[in-house]
Every structure is written in C-alpha cells, then in structure tokens.
Amino acid sequence: MTQSEEKYYLLSLGCAKNTVDSESMAQVLQQSGMRGVGDPEAAEVLIVNTCGFINSAKQESIDALRELAEIKRADQMVIAAGCLSQRYGDTLVQEVPGLDGVIGTRRWMDIFDLITRLRRRKHPEPLYHLPDEAKVIGLDERGVLRASLQGASAYLKIADGCRRPCAFCAIPAIKGTAVSRPLEAIVAEAARLEAMGVKEVMLIAQDSTDYGYDLGLKDGLAQLLDEIVAAAPGIPWLRIMYAYPGYVTPRLMETMAKHEQIVPYLDIPLQHGHRETLKRMRRPAKVEWVYETIGALRELMPAVAVRTTFIVGYPGETEEEFDGLLQMVRDLEFDRVGAFQYSYELGTPSAALPDHVDDVIKQERYERLMELQQGISLKKNQALVGRTLDILVEGHGAGEDERGEAIDAVISLGRSYRDAPEIDGYVLVEGELPVGEIVPVRITGATTYDLLATVDLAEPSVVQAGQIYGAGMLDSGRVQTRPASAE
After folding, report:
1. What pLDDT is attached to residue 2?
2. Which domains does the chain show, CATH number per domain?
C-alpha cells in the first residue's frame, strides 16, 4: 500500500478551538492523498487531538490514546496531537506505551510530514515534533480553511495562543503567546463559508477581544467584524465567543449594535465576582467595570444575552468572597452561567498558592451558585413566553409525555440567538422543521435551560425579520469529536 492510499482516523477531544485544529489537520491529510474514516480498525494512522486543560480532560485524552495503542496492529501507528502533547509531550510515552508519534499545538500543519517520517524510521522509538516557536501560526497554514463545520454552523478561528497572565491557566504554556491570523485571510474564509451555505459563524480564539493587538490594530475585533459583514452579507448570524473582561470596548459594542448580522450575544468569562479573588487569579479586578459594561450592553442592545463562566473554590476563597460572587450574579442576572470547581494544575501560579479549598466546600459552593442561577435562568426564559424568535434548526427527536415516555410526535431541536452550540440551551418545537434553516417560532413554554415553541410563520422575530434562509446542512465526516465540558 502506498502512503497516498492510507486512511486516517482522527478523534478530537476538548473545546471548539481544538476541533478547528482537528479539521485543519484533516484537510492537510486529505490534500496529501489520505482519506478519513470513522472506524479506527479501518485506518492505518490513528490520531487523537488531545485536551490538556484540566486533570479530567488530561485523563480522558490519556485513556483514549491507551485504548488505541492497546488495539493497534503492526501496520498501524498512533499519534498524540494537541494540547496534552504540547504540555507533556516528552513524558507522554511513559503514560501511553506503544505511542508512535507526538505533535504539539504550534505545528499541527506538519502532521503529514510527521507521518512520513514515522513510515521511514528504522527504529521503533517515538518521534516528537514539538517546536516552541508559535509565530508561524496564521502565516503557514497550508492553505486550509481554519474553521470547523457543525451542521449549518461553523467555528472560525481568528487567533491562537494567549498573552494574559491568569494564574490558574496553562494555555499560554501550551499554545504560546497570542498570534492573530491575518485579517484578509479570515474575511476570505468567512466569504467561503457564506458560499457553502453556512448560517452561523462563531469567531473563536483564546481571547477574541485581543484580536489584532500583535498586528498593530486598535479595536481589531470591531474592525474584523465590519470587514466580515461587508464581505459576507449573506451569513445570517455572526457570534462572538470568549471576550476578555475589560476589553469589550465602546467601539465593539457599537459595532455589534449596528449590524443585524451580529447576534446580540456575548460570552465574557469573568471567573469570579470578588476583587480579592480576582487579584489572586491575576485577572482584571475592577468589578465596577463589569456592572458598567453589562449596563452599557443592555442599553445599546436591550435583547442582548450575556453568558459568563465562574470558578468556585479558588485557593484562598473565603465565604465573604464567595458571597461577593453570588451578589454579582443576583445583581446582573446573567442569561447563561457556566460554573466549574477549581482544578489544581501543576506548573500554574495558582498551584503554589496557600489555603486550597476543601473539595466538600467547593462542591457545596458550586451547588449554591447553580441553584441561584437556575432561578434566574428560569425567570429569563419565562419572560420570553408569547414572543417570537428565530431558531436555527439542528435536528429532530421523538416527543415524550410527562412521564418521559415516547409518544407519536416529532420534535424539532433548534437554537435561538441566545444559545451557542453545546454550552447553552435549546428550543424544542412541535413538528418536523427543515434542518439547517432559520425559522421563526412562537415561544409557548419555558424550563430552566430550554424553551418550548410552535411554528409561527406569520410574526416577525424579536431580533431579526422572520425570513427563512435556504437549507445548508454541512457535515465534514472527517473528524470524530468529543467535546470537553470544562474549557
């Protein structure tokens, strides 16, 4: 068998940013003549794009690699790629006997070159490809589309790496400093996604609001959004993910407000609500900014949905500090909140802090925070009953009665502008709607996380006109994905 006839299996773990890298590696392999398959037994090359963000993600990645290494045949190779490889590459082979190759986050575009070297090696020792240099990101991407297609939606990566000093985070050590992709390249890719029929484009980076800093751009994200809107006017929804506190500028807010394509949704991971905890986290500690910015967002865009993330049980977190977090949640009533218990990460500044919080206390605080937010989320959802929203239809399922038993009914599953994929809620609609289309529906009921609705073609939506866009279901079929819950 020649190398060009080989098949690869690629399992992607972790966040959407990892999935984009997996899709990009898949494109490189396909350009080199390889073919992706969904069954590892049918492939000669087995790749796991790992996640190393927290301990649970690290273990999941190691388990996946071990499983493949244990069942591999003599004609197969197992390669570890991604964050775990970049962080622990030199020692990963000790955790995974039988591992053939290791490639990190900063040169994913060399995946086929590594496979070629592995085929030519004369000894069975693993080969490592872990250069420290990150500045090639955005400049040497082998001409592939830096996006991950998920149905009629796409994650579009605008930068990689991070220059923020957060004490609990290993991302700068894994990814390197922030490197923005050229603006013209991103805009061209958005236009390609429009031509492919994509209905929703989500701009992602470790810190999307830092886009363009290294390119000498001021308010680079706002400038990028203006360019994308002009170049790809047929994309109905543009969504911003991962905004950094303190860098949601007045120009960015105004840009969001003036373009109908940019959905009124903003994800700002705040991580905590008390000044002293934020200082120990090495995060922006001006709590007043949070109140002022959320107020300004809601004044400019009354329908805006604000999502945030908090860490509970951070080292040194007192009951008073945790109460400060709860008070912020009560005051600002975020639309969506993700909460995680602090995870000890070796090598991060937070690992050396004193006064680590007991696991029992972390769990108790997590439950109190989520109970508070559940009441807020339910109230926010109930306020939408009777209104009309556009939803992007993603699939269908069987209906259930009050006892959870299947009934003879079809339910369509969709998301409104308030819902980012995988992390937010859904809108459940009676009847079978066309997958991949944006359809106006009338909200008839609400639960803590999801909305219930019926089809309403007569009314305009709350946020956008009730236009139904053409179907464009997209599925690459090249990468097996398994999202992480903690990144």
Report:
1. 47
2. 3-135 (3.40.50.12160), 147-382 (3.80.30.20), 388-455 (2.40.50.140)
The identity of residue 350, as a single letter, is S
Give CA separation, 319 vs 215, 269, 273, 284, in Å. 43, 21, 13, 21
Specify the pLDDT at position 463: 39
pLDDT < 50 stretches in the chain: 1-3, 460-478, 483-487
The closest alpha carbon to 326, from 382, 370, 378, 294, belongs to: 370
Query: What is the per-residue pLDDT for 186?
Result: 97
pLDDT of residue 482: 53
Q: From the CB of residue 20, how many other CB atoms can be counted at a distance below 10 Å?
A: 23
| Amino acid letter, residue 189 | E
Question: For 328-354, what is each residue's pLDDT tens digit?
Answer: 999 999 999 999 999 988 889 999 999
d(CA 247, CA 268): 10
Q: Are strands 427-430 and 406-415 parallel, antiparallel or unpaired?
A: antiparallel
Please tell me the distance from the alpha carbon of residue 164 to that of residue 161, in angstroms, as a whole number: 9
Name residues whose C-beta falls within 8 Å of residue 157's C-beta, 6 or more positions apart in sequence: 17, 20, 21, 146, 147, 181, 204, 205
The token pair at 273 is: 């609500």
- Give the predicted TM-score (pTM) of the model: 0.88
Task: State residue 148's pLDDT score.
Answer: 93
Query: What 3-state DSSP class applies to 292?
Result: helix
pLDDT score of 403: 61
